[in-house]
């Protein structure tokens, strides 16, 4: 029933990737050993990292000005590593958007390194919408500007790139990375943990403009210094070999089976529209949480009129084989996460269930 797993994360993986992963757990075909027991110092794993990087670079049309790293610690560690690099000892102020659960988590670690200006706070709106460009008054001399492109809990997503191109732009793309084309040259640092669109938990992809690493503030432990990981080709210490290997398989799937990010974007738009159409059609039963123009194409979040009805919806959905639909503990409700690997057939099956439930 993997194809009916609408969990917010770890998310569903493509069927072909699961099959290849299952085989690799027993023995990687070209090595004859389990992927769980192959040395991270082997030539085979060095080639895995190299190909995964090459595939991501190709998918994003990423210029050589940017490096790709495979790190540990999830997006949460990046909340600290980024201000250590870009804010510490600068005497400048970093600008942050507080648009939901995860962007709020990123702010306290930054304040340990320097001044942080909350450029916009969506709490008064219930984190149901995102700021318009005319609501943001950027400082041209800010150390950097940070935002989360897709808030997984609240189901809101930026469909345009905010910020000034003259200020270093940093983005947490954990839940929509590789779901659509992006203009990578407009970003100085992008980070995304794997367990939404890329693979299993354990690895975080970081894309960083190389010039940010000259110079680097003093006092940063080597393991938290991007330069150390870049010099070691993401094998500074024992990396999550299994997770990186699955990221490689997913990158192959995006390139060879899907046909690139333009095609992936078209599929994701169709999946999201399928569910939002039902929500809008049966507005007396389903209340979409996000403002229409800010609706996420990755996380469709909605409520029903009563807690009892939501519980019944989840009970019947589970009986039909749908998994992972319970909303985040911080806001409740229902959340259908439709990451890259979620098939259109599965989304259409959920749509039919929602239509029939509304009718009942």
Q: What is the β-strand count?
A: 12
Strand order in the largest sheet: 1-9-8-7-4-2-3
- The coarse overall form would be globular
End-to-end Cα distance, whole Å, is 25 Å
Given the structure, what is the number of helices? 9
Strand-pairing-aware structural class: alpha/beta
Largest sheet: 7 strands, mixed
- The CATH H-level superfamily of the largest domain is Type I PLP-dependent aspartate aminotransferase-like (Major domain)
The CATH topology of the largest domain, please? Aspartate Aminotransferase, domain 2
Oligomer: single chain
Low-confidence stretches: none
Percentage of residues in helical conformation: 25-40%
Mean pLDDT across every amino acid position: 96
Give me the CATH architecture of the largest domain, please.
3-Layer(aba) Sandwich
Number of domains: 2
Q: What is the alpha-carbon Rg in Å?
A: 21 Å
Provide the succession of SSEs.
HHEHEHEEEEEEEHHHEEHEH
The CATH first-level class of the largest domain comes to Alpha Beta
Hey, roughly how much beta strand do the residues contain? 5-15%
Describe this structure in words.
This protein is α/β, with parallel strands linked by helices. It has two domains: 109 residues, Aspartate Aminotransferase, domain 1, CATH 3.90.1150.10; 244 residues, 3-Layer(aba) Sandwich (Aspartate Aminotransferase, domain 2), CATH 3.40.640.10. It has nine helices and twelve strands. A seven-stranded mixed sheet has the order 1-9-8-7-4-2-3, sandwiched between helices. A three-stranded antiparallel sheet has the order 10-11-12, covered by helices on one side. It has a two-stranded antiparallel ribbon with strand order 5-6. The longest helix is centred in the last third of the chain and has 21 residues.
């Amino acid at each position: 029933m993997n194809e009916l797993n609408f969990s917010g994360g770890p998310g569903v993986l493509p069927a072909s990737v699961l099959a290849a992963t299952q085989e690799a757990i027993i023995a990687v075909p070209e090595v004859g050993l389990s992927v769980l027991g192959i040395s991270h110092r082997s030539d085979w794993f060095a080639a895995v990292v190299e190909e995964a990087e090459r595939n991501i670079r190709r998918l994003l049309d990423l210029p050589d000005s940017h490096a790709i790293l495979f790190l540990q610690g999830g997006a949460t560690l990046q909340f600290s590593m980024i201000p250590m690099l870009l804010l510490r000892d600068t005497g400048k102020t970093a600008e942050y958007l507080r648009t939901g659960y995860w962007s709020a988590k990123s702010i306290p670690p930054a304040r340990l390194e320097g001044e942080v200006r909350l450029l916009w706070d969506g709490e008064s709106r219930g984190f149901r919408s995102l700021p318009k460009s005319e609501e943001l008054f950027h400082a041209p001399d800010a150390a950097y500007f940070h935002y989360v492109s897709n808030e997984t809990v609240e189901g809101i997503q930026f469909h345009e790139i905010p910020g000034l191109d003259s200020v270093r732009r940093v983005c947490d793309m954990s839940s929509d990375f590789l779901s659509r084309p992006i203009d990578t040259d407009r970003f100085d640092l992008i980070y995304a943990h794997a367990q939404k669109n890329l693979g299993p938990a354990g690895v975080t992809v970081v894309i960083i403009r190389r010039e940010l690493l000259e110079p680097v503030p003093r006092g940063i432990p080597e393991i938290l210094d991007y330069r150390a990981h870049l010099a070691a080709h993401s094998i500074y210490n024992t990396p999550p070999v299994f997770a990186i290997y699955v990221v490689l398989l997913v990158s192959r799937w995006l390139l060879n089976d899907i046909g690139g990010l333009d095609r992936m974007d078209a599929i994701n738009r169709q999946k999201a529209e399928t569910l939002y159409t039902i929500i809008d059609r049966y507005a007396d039963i389903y209340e979409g949480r996000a403002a229409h123009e800010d609706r996420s194409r990755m996380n469709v979040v909605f409520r029903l009129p009563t807690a009892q009805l939501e519980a019944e919806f989840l009970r019947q959905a589970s009986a039909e084989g749908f998994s992972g639909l319970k909303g985040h503990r911080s806001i409740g409700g229902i959340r259908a996460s439709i990451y890259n690997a979620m098939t259109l057939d599965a989304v259409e099956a959920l749509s039919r269930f929602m239509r029939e439930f509304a009718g009942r």
